[in-house]
Amino acid sequence: MRNTGPKCRQCRREGTKLFLKGAKCFTSKCPITRRPFPPGVHGPSQTRVKLTGFGTQLREKQKAKRLYGLMERQFSNYVAKAAGTAGNTGEMLQQL
């Protein structure tokens, strides 16, 4: 099912601007600049623990999926296609 939720919440979860709202991300009204903490009930008050290696990989994967607006199966198909071609997998993934 397609993600139809708040776009700025996704940016705040990732901690970077994903430019999902277009021009609003370039203004001072962008929620990532107003509230630079993750969304949720425990967002600003909770101290963040250091992510593990798996956690950082998962965040990067989620960021790439959200940036291109893909679902998990679409993304995994693109990764499999990029891995099957010759060359750097990351660069091939961006080209696809």
Quickly describe the structure.
The protein has 96 residues and is an all-alpha fold.
What keyword list fits this structure?
96 residues; mainly alpha; Ribosomal Protein S4 Delta 41, Chain A, domain 1
Layout: helices, strands, pairs:
Layout: H1 7-14, H2 31-34, H3 53-68, H4 72-84, H5 89-95
Helix pairs in contact: 4-5
Major beta-sheet overview = none
Q: Using the coordinates shown, work out and report the CATH topology of the largest domain.
A: Ribosomal Protein S4 Delta 41, Chain A, domain 1
User: Which architecture name of the largest domain does CATH use?
Assistant: Orthogonal Bundle
What fraction of the residues are assigned to beta strands by DSSP?
A: under 5%
Helix/strand/pairing category: mainly alpha
- How many DSSP E strands? 0
Assign an overall shape. Answer: globular
SSE run: HHHHH
Q: Output the number of helix runs.
A: 5
**CATH homologous superfamily annotation of the largest domain:** Ribosomal protein S4/S9, N-terminal domain
| Integer tally of domains | 2
List low-pLDDT spans: none
Radius of gyration, in angstroms, nearest whole number:
15 Å
Mean pLDDT across every amino acid position: 83
> How many angstroms does the end-to-end distance come to?
22 Å
Can you give a write-up of this model?
This protein has 96 residues and is mainly alpha-helical. It folds into two domains: 1-48, Ribosomal Protein S4 Delta 41, Chain A, domain 1, CATH 1.10.1050; 50-96, no CATH class. Helices cover 50% and strands 0% of the residues. It has helices at residues 7-14, 31-34, 53-68, 72-84, 89-95. α4 (72-84) crosses α5. The longest helix has 16 residues, at 53-68. It is globular, with a radius of gyration of 15 Å. The two termini are 22 Å apart.
